[in-house]
Write a structure and sequence with these properties.
Blueprint: H1 3-27, E1 37-49, E2 52-64, E3 71-81, E4 84-86, E5 89-91, E6 98-100, E7 113-116, E8 120-125, E9 129-134, E10 139-142, E11 145-147, E12 150-160, E13 164-174, H2 181-187, H3 197-206, H4 212-253
Amino acid sequence: MRTRPVLAVTASATALGLCMAASSAGATTVASPAKGKALSTLSLLQVAAAGHSLRLGDVTLSADTLTGKALSSVTLTPLVADGTAIGTQTITPSNSPVSAPAASSPAALAGIVSLTSPAFSAAATSAPKTTAGANSLGSLKLLGLNVPLNGTVSLGSAVSSVVGASSAKTIEIKGLALPSIADLLAALGLDITKLPLATVDSLVKKLGLVTSAISTAESAASSALAQVSTATATLNTATAALTSASSGLTAATS
């Protein structure tokens, strides 16, 4: 007969444990999907020369959950020449990842400007998350002169329950050196060292290249020329006086 209370307590404890377990399970919540939109855009380089316009590396990354459905895409245009897009691709989770080959500007422009895009890689997932990047910045030539474009580029966009909507881009450029005016003129067949000073001065001003350093140099040159003119006049006066004295000496001794 005493077993009944023991069984009753055991049964009660079991019931309590079940209730606690049920209560604990009921308190567990599932995180709601994050809602937001992340965009990352880039136009790597634009060159205008002789009436032509070239644009390198147009990239747009999008991660979007505002519609209730996770959407992600990368739109990549390696090169745009005079408004014409070359090699445009759209990357989504269905065709990801993609490696886009380099694209080059039309050969007809090679004598003026030559531009080649880097080989981009891009990916999109249903997270949603997108990435794109390149291990170089392509190549550029102006009037046949090489302009080094060493560096890397990377972009990303995502929407997550941890950080929400986020996007970022990183561009690293190494050793960029533009051609000097002398180099560009030499490429056109002009030797700047043989041009008259007035012509060089006019050229610099018309090209909008006047800087404080050039202005200071011009002032110094003007001052030096003024001193040369004064010294020349003094020398001429002294020469005339010497000539007169020599003539007097000759007359006195004859």
